[in-house]
Each structure stands twice: as C-alpha cells, then as structure tokens.
Design goal:
- The structure holds two protein chains of two kinds.
- Chain A is mainly alpha-helical.
- Chain A contains four helices and two strands.
- Chain B has three domains: about 350 residues, Sodium/glucose cotransporter (Up-down Bundle), CATH 1.20.1730; about 55 residues, no CATH class; about 35 residues, no CATH class.
- In chain B, strands 1-6-3-4 form a four-stranded antiparallel sheet. Chain B has a three-stranded antiparallel sheet with strand order 5-2-7.
- In chain B, a hairpin with a 4-residue loop joins strand 3 and strand 4.
- In chain B, helix 7 packs parallel to helix 20.
- The longest helix of chain B is centred in the first third of the chain and has 49 residues.
- The chains are: A mainly alpha, B mainly alpha.
C-alpha cells in the first residue's frame, strides 16, 4: 500500500452502515408545513401562468417560422451578403431568439419564487 | 498516423482529467450525482459537452449534404429542448431530491412498478443511443488508421468505463466540461480556416447551389455499404484496382467494400431513396422526411421529436441532479441554451461547403464523414492533414463525452433502480454494461447511426416527457395512469420502429408518421396518462408531493429572510424534509 493512499475518515457506525447492503427504506408520504404549503401553492399558481406564456412564445416561434418559410418561398431569392435570407432565417434567428426566451423565463421564474416566499 | 496524433491525446487527456475527479467517494449519491456540488456554469458546459455527440459534430453537416438545408432544423429542435426543459422540468425535477429519472417517478408517485418500468425505458433509450456512439468510434478510427473496426470500439469502451468506474459522475463532469471547450474550438477554428481557404469560387457556389448532375473531376467513391445505383445511360468507370468497368443502363448493385472512380464529365447516377444534392428541393429551408412530399409537416414532426426527446433524455436529466439546488438546475439549462446556440451556428458552414466539395458522398451514403473529408479537399499538404487530425480528435471527443453520460445512466438504472445495491456494485455495473454494449456494437457496423439516435429521441419523448410534465404540473396524476401512459408511449414508439424495420414500404403521409412517430405517440402517451389518472383517485398526499417540487429548498428558512440558514443540512432537500427526530432538533437549533 502506498503511503499516500487517501482514506475516507468516518465514524465506525458510518463505515458499518456504508458496508452493509442497503435496504430501501419504506416510502413515506411527503409532508408540508401549512405555511410552506401556502407558499408553494402561491408559487405554483404563479409559475403555471409563466410556464404557459413561455411555452406559447416558444411554440409560436418554433412552429411559426417553418410556416412563414413555407408561405413565402420568395425569401429563397432574397440575399443578404450573398446568402439566401431563408438560410439565414434558420440559423441566425432561432438561436438568439431561444437564448432571449430562456433568459426572460429564467428571470421571471426566479422573481416569482422570491416574491412568493416573502409575502 | 493521423489516428495516433488525433485520438491518442484525446484518450490521454480524458483519462487525466477524469483522474482529477477521483475523490473520496462513499455513497451512491457521490457516484451518481457528484455529491450535488456542481456549479451552473460547469454543469452547463458538461451538459453541452455530453449532448454534442457524433450526431451533432458529424451528423448534421452530413444530413445537410443528404437531405438539404432543412436538416438545419435538427439543431434548432435540440436547442429548443433545453428551453422546454428550463421552462417545465429543471428546477422542480431537481427539488424532488431524486438521483435518477425512475427515482423521481417513485418519489412523486410512490410506485415501485413505475420505477422498474421507467428503469427499463432508460435502458432502451440509452441502448439506442449508446450503440451508435461506440459504432462511430470504431468506424472513425478504422477510416483514419486502417485498424480493424473492433479496435476503436474497444478503446472507446475501455477509456469510458475506466474513467467512470474510478471517478463516477465527478470525473464525467470534468471530462465533459473540458471536452465541450475542446469540441467548440475544434469545430469553429477549422470552419473559419475552411471558409478563408476555399477561395471565392467555392464560396459563391456554396450559397448559389447547383444540382450535382455531372462529376467535375475524376472522383473516387468508396462504397462501405451495398448501394443500388440508377443509371439513365451506360457508364464506364474504373474500379479500385484500376480495371475499367462498364455499367449498363438501369439498376446496378454496387457490392460493399468496393471503390469506383467516376470519370470527369460523366452524369451522376441516381440513388434509390435520395435526390441529388443541390436541386431546388435541396435548397428549400424545410425538411421533407422520407420524401413524403409534406415539407411543412416533416419539419414540424422533426421539431417535436427532437425538442420533447431532448427534454426526456435520461442522461441529460441526470446531469441536472448534480446541481446544488433547483435554481442552479434551472440556470444550468438556461446557460446550456446559449452554449449550444454558439456551436450550432457552424454545422451549416460545413454542410454547404461539403455540398460543393464532396457531393459524391451522397452516392455511397457516407455523408457522416463529410466534415472529416473536407480539409484534404481544400489543402492537400500538411495543413490539410493537421486540420483532418483536429476534426477527427473532436469527433472522438464527441462520442467519448456522450458515452460517459449514457453509461452512467445505464449503471444507475440497473444498480440504483432495478436491483439497488451499493457503490461497489455500481462500479462493477459500469464495466459490465460497457462490455455488453461492445458486444452489441460489434455486429452493428451496418446500422444507420442517425436512425438509431432518432429512435432513442422518440422513445424518450413519448415516455419521460409526459411523465415529467404531468408529474410536475398536474396534482391529479396517479401511479396507474402514469404506468399506462409510459407503457403506451413505449409500445407506440417501439411499434413504429418495428414497422419501419420489418413492415411494408410506405409512402406519403403514413411513411412520414412511421419514420417520425413523435407527433402522434407523444399526444397518445399524454392522453393515456391523463385518462388513466382520471379513472382513479389520487392519494391524499398527492398535491403535497407535487407542491413540494415548487417550493424553493432552504432548510431552516424562516420566511422573513432575517438570516441565511445557519447550516446546510445536506444536499438533498428530500432527506432534509423527511421527518426525523434528530433533523427536527437540528433544524430548530439552526433557527
């Protein structure tokens, strides 16, 4: 054994507990303090609205863009710096847009959690 | 020679970085979720590194050559999956305190059968995803070094399983985060070099595509798989050993392993089941799956499958559990959207250049090698060789990083969910699972990697996506309903795969819906889950189990923010909330 071997320092009980075969503990129903439950309900309701809005924005954008490209085939002919507009539309538009949507949703979701707990 | 310079450093660096993650490890949680101490930035780099598999590094550019510009919707769907994950899943999922997806199912619905079913689904998804990774490792290595196919498969398996068995999730995190930066660099720098090097003529052709109808120069095509060519007129070609061969008009079957040299100026033969790149359909920015003639529906189907599939991928969800809390998990998903967005700006560059420089790859179907084949077309000297080596190294890093996460999720499903055991069994399962995957990957050289991965996405989308979304947002979900929904999604997607493999050839809309079953299998799973739950009555604790997921974890939080919590009662909110006399006392002391 090399002198530099790292050893986990634990109490004898912990060592025994880790060495034993683990039996799954019985599942217990989750409990919530009444205060926590009120906060959680408030946060949940607020988050539900935010989630619906964010998903609406994402889906409208994602499924709308192919529809627009399908309805306006003339965009293939329009060129920006030599590259067809419709090619740029599926590379340069979606990724920044999705970054903006996630940033927006992240801020709102965190704000709801903060406010929900303070009230 | 390229192989040694390209692959050896990747292997060595993977092992070294992995060793850095080997730390004192005592519990399953240490092994599977790195003790939940991974910061959002590191975690998102690891998620991106894990997610950018060979399919992203090589596959998307290859699909552009094969299917046209519409293939660029795949990366859009992949990235959108993380937006959906951020919105719907990330924070509540982490707050469940689970370690794996089946664990989450049990924590929310208290059903052991559901946990086992979910574990089996994890194995199906990970298997469909893992075999192509190992297969591509073998293929790439055999292409660049003339070594037999099994060498690459075994090297990949050994590196991945040693790293994981020693270091677990912590080692995987460091390796994946490092390999993300590595891949980003190795993808962007060659792209810029190629763009500058090709010259104005090629750049002009890249954005003004012309149909690939005639060979512009003597072109050698290696057929690794059997291909049926369709010729309008007889054509004289040379075979690999220099003899000349006249192919009659009509159908001609090229045996696998042969090489044909097409003369300059000859008409390009057609290929069964594909159109020559460069035509008007090719440059339309929509994706016509299986040439079903429904470009808009095809694009939507691919977006649905990739987006919801990404949201349900077990190895990505497992990475979210390594975050310290729900908020960090949500931030991880948000940063990942940005990191992937940067990477996915570039497959289009490779795709359009490959269409001009190596369009003949579509004849042999080997469009996956387009990215690696490009540098030698642009520069035949040593610079071209160096860039080929760089891209090969990046591709090898791509499937190592992905295999790490997948193998860990397989080990978790077996030794944490199906037959729960301790740390030693987890380490052993990693090695055993790697051995099984090698045995599966050896005979699957001829399988289409892209198709397998797509199926993996579809299965994940029609099972875990409804389970997670309804589990987190719908208090009335019951265990029987969830089991019925997961089973329905699994059967529907597996049935579609079986029909695609063994069923009669289809065309039009049915072909589209069989090739991309996600648009109907996901709603089917949702409806079954909701319907099955409405038949029963949720247990009394059901809404508490759901609301718990939306409550920000802060042990000892006093709702007035007077003080930060005095002590951290462990990394799992779940254990902190379990009723235990000792914990209750500690919590009171902490206030």
């Amino acid at each position: 054994m090399s002198p530099h071997r790292r050893v986990a320092v634990t109490s004898p009980q912990t060592r025994l507990a880790h060495a034993r075969r683990r039996h799954r503990t019985a599942w217990r129903p989750p409990t919530l303090d009444p205060v926590d439950a009120r906060v959680a309900m408030r946060v949940y309701r607020a988050q539900r609205i935010l989630v619906a809005q964010a998903l609406l924005a994402l889906f409208t954008f994602l499924f709308g863009l192919p529809l627009v490209l399908r309805l306006f085939p003339s965009w293939d002919g329009v060129r920006l710096l030599g590259v067809p507009m419709s090619w740029l539309a599926i590379v340069l538009v979606p990724f920044p847009a999705m970054v903006l949507i996630s940033r927006w949703q992240l801020r709102r979701a965190e704000r709801v959690e903060d406010v929900g707990e303070l009230e | 020679m390229i192989a040694v310079f390209a692959v050896a450093p990747v292997v060595v660096i993977t092992l070294l970085v992995g060793l850095r993650g080997v730390a004192a490890m005592r519990t399953t949680s240490d092994f599977l979720v790195a003790s939940r101490r991974v910061s959002p930035l590191l975690n998102s780099a690891a998620v991106s590194g894990e997610y950018l598999s060979a399919a992203s590094f090589l596959g998307v550019a290859g699909l552009v050559v094969k299917d046209g510009m519409g293939a660029l919707w795949y990366p859009v769907g992949f990235t959108a999956g993380y937006v959906a994950m951020l919105v719907l899943v990330a924070a509540p999922m982490r707050r469940s305190g689970a370690v794996t997806v089946p664990d989450f199912a049990e924590a929310r619905l208290a059903s052991t059968p559901l946990r086992k079913l979910a574990a089996v689904t994890v194995l199906v998804v990970a298997g469909l995803y893992l075999v192509p990774q190992f297969r591509t490792a073998g293929l790439v290595l055999s292409v660049v070094s003339d070594s037999p196919y099994w060498v690459g498969v075994v090297i990949a398996a050994v590196v991945v399983s040693v790293t994981l068995a020693l270091g677990g999730m912590r080692a995987a995190t460091y390796v994946q985060a490092f390999q993300f930066c590595f891949k980003l660099l190795l993808f962007i720098v060659p792209a810029i070099w190629l763009l500058l090097q090709v010259g104005p003529q090629v750049r002009h052709e890249a954005v003004h595509p012309v149909p690939f109808t005639h060979f512009s120069h003597d072109t050698a095509v290696d057929f690794d798989l059997e291909v049926t060519l369709l010729l309008d007129e007889p054509l004289t070609v040379r075979t690999g050993d220099g003899r000349s061969l006249t192919i009659p008009a009509g159908e001609y079957r090229v045996a696998d392993g042969s090489t044909l040299v097409f003369p300059a100026g000859a008409a390009v033969p057609g290929v069964r089941g594909g159109a020559a790149p460069g035509g008007p359909d090719w440059s339309r920015p929509l994706l016509d799956v299986n040439d079903a003639d429904h470009p808009l529906l095809g694009t939507w189907a691919v977006l649905v499958a990739t987006m919801f599939g990404t949201m349900g991928l077990p190895h990505v969800l497992m990475r979210l559990h390594t975050s310290p809390d729900g908020r960090a998990a949500r931030r991880t998903a948000a940063i990942t959207v940005g990191l992937l967005g940067v990477f996915y700006l570039f497959p289009g560059v490779y795709g359009t250049l490959a269409k001009v420089l190596v369009p003949q790859l579509y004849l042999s179907g080997a469009t996956d090698t387009a990215v690696v084949a490009l540098p030698s077309q642009v520069d035949t000297g040593s610079t071209g060789t160096v860039f080929t080596a760089l891209l090969t190294a990046g591709a090898f890093a791509a499937f190592l990083a992905t295999s790490l996460g997948l193998l860990l999720v397989v080990a978790g499903a077996i030794s944490h969910d199906l037959v729960p055991g301790g740390l030693a069994r987890l380490r052993f399962t990693v090695v055993a699972a790697a051995a099984v995957v090698v045995l599966l990957a050896l005979p699957s050289v001829k399988l289409d990697a892209g198709v397998l991965v797509t199926w993996g996405f579809t299965v994940a989308a029609s099972t875990f996506c409804p389970l997670l979304v309804l589990g987190i947002w719908w208090p009335r979900l019951t265990a029987p309903g969830a089991i019925a929904g997961v089973a329905a999604g699994l059967l529907a997607s597996a049935g579609a795969i079986a029909v695609a493999l063994f069923g009669p050839p289809l065309s039009g809309l049915p072909a589209l819906l069989i090739a991309q079953p996600a648009p109907w299998s996901i709603p089917l799973a949702f409806v079954t889950m909701v319907g099955g739950s409405l038949f029963g009555r949720p247990p009394a604790w059901s809404s508490a189990a759901m609301l718990r997921l939306h409550l920000r974890e802060r042990p000892g939080f006093d709702h007035r923010r007077s003080r930060p919590p005095a002590r951290d009662l462990g990394h799992s909110s779940w254990s902190a909330r379990r009723s235990s006399a000792a914990r209750r006392v500690i919590r009171r002391l902490g206030r």
